[in-house]
Amino acid sequence: MARILVASMPFAGHVGPLGALAAELVRRGHEVVAYTGAKYRGRFLGAGATWLPWIKATDFDDADLAATFPEIGDGKGLRGGRANGEHILFGTAAGQIADIMAAAPYDLLVTDQVAFGGAIAGQALGVPWATVAVTPLSMTSRHLPPFGLRLTPATGPAGRARDAVLRGVTSVAYRRVVDTRLNALRSQVGLGPVEPGRLFDGIYSTDLVLAQGVPGLEYPRPDLPDYVHFVGRLAAAPARPAREPDPADATGPAGSGPSAVGGTSELPDWWPELAAATTVVHVTQGTLDTDPADLIRPTLDGLADRDVLVVCTTGGGDPAVLGPLPPNARAAAYLPHDLLLPFVDVMVSNGGWGGVLASIQAGVPLVVAGASLDKPEVARRVAWSGAGINLRTGQPQPDCVAQAVERIRAEPAFRVRATELGAAMTAAGGVTRAGELVESLLAK
């Protein structure tokens, strides 16, 4: 039995995959120490892990970031993204390092890829270390444009030259903005500098990277290191194939997509309507960017007169915040994706990676409207893969959403491709394969 630290940022979309992997490692007989915020301690305790709290690191509630970090405001736009990086990703990292190292020793570390403190502590302790990618891979590649520039890979000589120039320009910016911060944290524990100008490559393990998804959802990159393994979706249970609702499943992980992080919930009274509906459209903004005016309300308005049943989740907020619902709409604070998605024909999402993976694993094509953090990257990958449509905005007009939904309904190729990718994700092994790969590090 090994003592394994699992470090997760206290965001619902991060706790979901890390919590599922922690449960798998406990099942395999290991002592798992879960390092995360107080809000999510129950998820890991319920999985059989012990909890290491954020003490030196500033803890926070992901449903109200501005309460702890006022600079973040509503989290939208360039200012919100910059404040998120400054105050959460980098700002909590030194405390994370202190907390993790104070509770050592460990035989192995498993870290969320944006838990910078976990990555640095793992290297400082000199034990095997695995990274779980909770977003699309941000690792730099000489075959891709820089991550975050909202560009798909070029195909011709001129485009490849463009990408090379952009990589050079962003490398200079990374040295100033990212490298200086990472190197300052590393120097505090006696580590040398990261390889310059490579964004966040220095916080990915070179022992093992568990990448969620499958190659068909990620741009081709011939220079991908051999320690990167695509494992499909890290979730507590596979998507259910049944089309009939089961009252026995009224309790279980409560949440829509990445919000499925523990607790119990009863299925709503309208749940049986799902089986009777000709077409079900599910719209969700996850648990972080939850202003319904961005996507939920435009979807409700755009589909109000269509022959579909629209099911929306608010990510925890009172559904009353949505105002009056059209006759063809139903709402809940949370719904379990693994129970809901077998009834869904189209999912409308703001691009949370966990929810997108759940949708594709269930063979459900997507309409994605992503604007913040990694969500535009997710939207582009969905469109590039053929599994959905990228609306190229986080605040689409109702007609725009309706047209995209109708296009997916009319063109079977989207569902065919989502089904193909979903089968590949299931075949990739999920938490079972991830657990095997983590254990393989202990044998080295």
- The value of Rg in angstroms is 21 Å
**CATH topology (fold) name of the largest domain:** Rossmann fold
Query: For the largest beta sheet, what order do the strands appear in spatially?
Result: 3-2-1-4-5-6-7
Q: Distance N terminus to C terminus? A: 15 Å
What structural class do the secondary elements suggest?
alpha/beta
Number of structurally distinct domains: 2
User: What's the CATH H-level homologous superfamily of the largest domain?
Assistant: Glycogen Phosphorylase B
Largest sheet: 7 strands, parallel
Helices and strands, in order, run as EHEHEHHHEHEHEEHEHEEHEHEHEHHH
* Percent helix range: 25-40%
CATH architecture of the largest domain: 3-Layer(aba) Sandwich
Low-confidence stretches: 238-264
CATH classification, class level of the largest domain: Alpha Beta
The total count of helices amounts to 15
Based on the model shown, name its key terms.
six-stranded parallel beta sheet; 13 strands; 2 domains; Rossmann fold; globular; seven-stranded parallel beta sheet; 15 helices
Write up this protein.
It is a single chain. This protein has 444 residues and is α/β, with parallel strands linked by helices. The chain has 2 domains: 3-57 and 92-232 and 428-442, Glycogen Phosphorylase B (Rossmann fold), CATH 3.40.50.2000; 247-427, Glycogen Phosphorylase B (Rossmann fold). It has 15 helices and 13 strands. Helix 9 crosses helix 13 (398-410) and helix 11 crosses helix 14. GO terms for molecular function: hexosyltransferase activity; UDP-glycosyltransferase activity. One of its GO terms (biological process) is antibiotic biosynthetic process.
